[in-house]
Design goal:
The protein has one domain (27-152): FAS1 domain (Roll), CATH 2.30.180.10. The chain has seven helices and seven strands. The chain has helices spanning 2-23, 30-35, 41-50, 53-57, 69-73, 77-85, 87-95, and strands at residues 62-67, 98-100, 111-114, 120-126, 129-132, 135-144, 147-152.
């Protein structure tokens, strides 16, 4: 009886371990990691259209503040259409959401960070809440092999020069 219990326990432990391995995605660069997030389908499509996939696949490290699909729905349709039609402007807006270095939510300090677009964004943290400009981080610390991403509730628009 005791031997059967030990076998049963061993089988359960082994099955649990294999199940955990099967469900945990393999580490991947930001491009592939973000592609796994269903709430970022618009961001991922626009990254591809802007020709930025290779930048988000590069060595890094990078921190991406990726607007959710809901955030893109709040952008006026004409504005989004104009961005898609102007690849340079689209790349400018998307690269405004990326900073050099790997910055977890816990590491965010009230500061300004230079974006890959060349502008500056204000970061702030109060307890567990992290903001980027006026946007709130909805999901933090999506880790990738070349950085980290945070999901935002708004699309950031760089100031006009």
């Amino acid at each position: 009886m005791q031997t059967q219990i030990v076998r049963l326990f061993s089988t359960l432990v082994l099955a649990a371990g294999l199940g955990a391995c099967a469900t945990a995605p393999a580490p991947a660069p930001l491009t592939e990691t973000l592609a796994r997030a269903p709430q970022l389908s618009t961001f991922n499509r626009l990254v591809a259209e802007a020709g930025m996939a290779d930048e988000l696949r590069a060595a890094g490290p990078l921190t991406v503040f990726a607007p959710s699909d809901e955030a893109f729905k709040a952008v006026p349709a004409k504005t989004l259409e104009a961005l898609v039609a102007d690849k340079a402007q689209l790349k400018s807006v998307l690269s405004y959401h990326v900073v050099a270095g790997k910055l977890s939510a816990a590491e965010v300090r009230n500061s300004n960070q230079k974006t890959l677009q060349g502008g500056t964004i204000a970061l702030a943290r109060a307890g567990d809440f992290v903001t980027v400009e006026e946007a709130m981080v909805q999901q933090a610390d999506i880790t990738a092999t070349n950085g980290v991403a945070h999901v935002l509730d708004r699309v950031l628009m760089p100031p006009k020069k």
